[in-house]
Amino acid sequence: MHRSRSTKIVATLGPATSSEERIRAIFAAGVDVFRLNFSHGTVDDHRARVDIIRALEAEFGRPIGVLADLQGPKIRVGTFVGDRAHLTPGQPFRLDMTKEPGTTKRAPLPHPEIFQAIQVGSTLLIDDGRIRLRVRKHSEDTIDTEVEIGGDVSNRKGVNVPDVLLPLSPLTPKDRRDLDSALELGVDWVALSFVQRAADIAELRKLVGDRAAIMAKMEKPGAIEHLDDILAITDGLMVARGDLGVELPPEDVPPIQKMMLRAARELGKPVVVATQMLDSMVHSPTPTRAEASDVATAVYDGADAVMLSAESASGDYPVEAVQMMNRILARVERDPVYRQINDASRHEPEATSADAISAAARQCAHTLSAAAIVTYTTSGSTTLRAARERPDVPILCLTPKMATARRLALVWGVHAAFAEDAHNFADMVQRARVMALQEKLARPDDRLVITAGVPFGTPGATNILRIARA
Description:
Elements: E1 8-13, H1 20-29, E2 33-37, H2 43-60, E3 65-69, E4 84-87, E5 92-96, E6 106-108, H3 112-117, E7 123-126, E8 131-138, E9 142-149, E10 151-154, E11 159-160, H4 173-185, E12 189-192, H5 198-208, E13 213-218, H6 221-225, H7 227-233, E14 236-240, H8 241-247, H9 253-266, E15 271-274, H10 289-300, E16 305-308, H11 310-313, H12 318-333, H13 336-344, H14 353-367, E17 372-376, H15 381-388, E18 395-399, H16 402-407, E19 414-418, H17 425-438, E20 447-453, E21 462-469
Parallel strand pairs: 1-2, 1-16, 2-3, 3-12, 5-6, 12-13, 13-14, 14-15, 15-16, 17-18, 17-20, 18-19
Antiparallel strand pairs: 4-10, 5-9, 7-8, 7-11, 8-9, 20-21
Helix pairs in contact: 1-12, 2-4, 5-7, 10-12
């Protein structure tokens, strides 16, 4: 079973997609990777969903990725007298450390780290930016602000501090418990929320080791400033446009999205574009034309995957949302302009044998009209290099590690399959032929371009290119 497109679909599971019937339906509709949102649900909920996914994987013989998304620290105001207060533009408003319910003049903010880091002139955003405050002065336990954008604010609404690097670990005690549970469930990717710098990824890496790949969620302006350092240490990126759009002007988000996609592709790191992609399909069977265009833009920009959140987790039309996403991706990839953009945005290979082989494989596949590129990999690095080249044929990844196959389910153009490592050159070619035919990526006598590393089974040692007939 393989998809007829290169861009992958990530779908969030939730109340609307908890049953075996619904998970099977959205998998059949096109889902490649399932996201478990640890902001919601219990460990037992997530375990039941993983059991269903692994049963589908065994039934269809196709590795399926599972991504655990950690909640991260949530900064919120306290409660209010009468559960809400109305703020007027221009009025003074104080945030403090007391536990007294808030009024129209002040509110509790039980987060000492904000009081430590805040500066005069900083912006505080409440309720996804619906309320905007400007800091006029502050002390160890008070922040005096002026209301710039007013309105009603109610209990425990979220607070964003876009222009301050907060002395916060992105891993709360809850996240550490959830991480232990996720790793026990055998997830393939762990997404870290509230990333501000590379040290945040390093902190998670110490806990995860090699048990899962790590994805940095880019939702803080500070993370954009440290993008190169974060990319150097993470395995992938998620462009979380929802939170990013709260903390940045909306007009800044599209160019930043494109910049992150370019930077990650240059390093061969997969990128997921997420949040509000088909948002109207939470309650409508069809998306807006603007949403369809937004998804298409992410594909034209070279995203490895696009993600559904509430659309599949709690919406009224989860199956239809996946089907629509699948249709948009397939249509864009048939557009000749899509191939032209991919070719024009290709980066020069690095001066390594692995990069040279991967670039040559793409060129050979194109020149010979090959049916597929076949990569042998243990760690996944060979296949990631092949995907970075964005060839115009599928990439069949053969790996003896199921964990690697599942992680690569997220990567552009990759059809991963579990297979024993080759023992010699003849075995390498024979296994590639058999698997390409078995996976229906080639027909008898089609050409195949095969890459591998010698000695066989050595991670990262891509140094062979062979052309064979299926």
